Amino acid sequence: MAKVLVVEDEAAIADTLLFSLRSEGHEVQWLQLAQAALQAQQESPADVWLLDVGLPDIDGFEACRRLRQFSQVPVLFLTARDSEIDRVVGFEIGADDYVTKPFSPREVAARVRAILKRTQVQEPLAEPTSAQSCGVFVVDQARAQIRYREQTLVLTSHEWHLLHTLLAQPERVFSREQLLDAIGTPSHAGYERNIDSHIKTLRGKLRAVYAEGEPIQTHRGLGYSYQPERA
């Protein structure tokens, strides 16, 4: 099982999460302040974070930005905010998932399992395989890296799986449900619109490399596809 760091200042919420996660066999550490959590990650890294947005010392978004300066540990945000802009901001700064309060501890535990499953898939293979070219993209499966126009993209696990899925079948239109399956979230969970947020942040990272490009195309009412670009 995994080491989970819960960063939450409300004891009642933390207690329910600790019980649920420990019942699944995880080693769980609870901290109430973001600064302490950032220090703990440097000294004894966790495998996944549950990070509250409304912390008393540093808000969760800023804590995630600082975390991403030295660690790519998966982050699941816990928050009372349910607006689209908050979800977009969370994904843009490197979140892997987003749960709004009130939530079911069992649902959070299931999300942690899904995140850990995706993380394990991304671990390097014992014997490296050669990178594959997809037009202006280069996919290195062994290192879980994708290069765009010779620049390595810094991707969350969701973004990696989404882009890898699209690149594998150029011009094929994938529905949101199919893309949810690609990132390990059951399509019946009702999170289809989260795909839109992930695609938006992914496009932002691609435009930061090449502003004129638009490799990910939207098909209204259908989904998304990868349209190869010229070098």
Automatic annotation (TrEMBL):
Subcellular location as annotated: Cytoplasm
Residue ranges of every copy of the OmpR/PhoB-type domain listed in the record: 128-228
Gene Ontology terms: cellular component: cytosol; protein-DNA complex
Pfam families: Response_reg, Trans_reg_C
4-aspartylphosphate: residues bearing it: D52
Keyword Cytoplasm attributed: yes
Keyword Transcription tagged: yes
Gene Ontology terms for molecular function: cis-regulatory region sequence-specific DNA binding; identical protein binding; phosphorelay response regulator activity
Annotated InterPro entries: CheY-like_superfamily, OmpR/PhoB-type_DNA-bd, Sig_transdc_resp-reg_C-effctor, Sig_transdc_resp-reg_receiver, WalR-like, WH-like_DNA-bd_sf
GO BP of this protein: positive regulation of DNA-templated transcription
CDD domains: trans_reg_C
Keyword annotations from UniProtKB, A to Z: Cytoplasm, DNA-binding, Phosphoprotein, Transcription, Transcription regulation, Two-component regulatory system
SMART domains per the UniProt record, alphabetical: REC, Trans_reg_C
PANTHER family listed in its UniProt record: REGULATOR OF RPOS, TRANSCRIPTIONAL REGULATORY PROTEIN CREB
Protein name as catalogued: Two-component system, OmpR family, catabolic regulation response regulator CreB
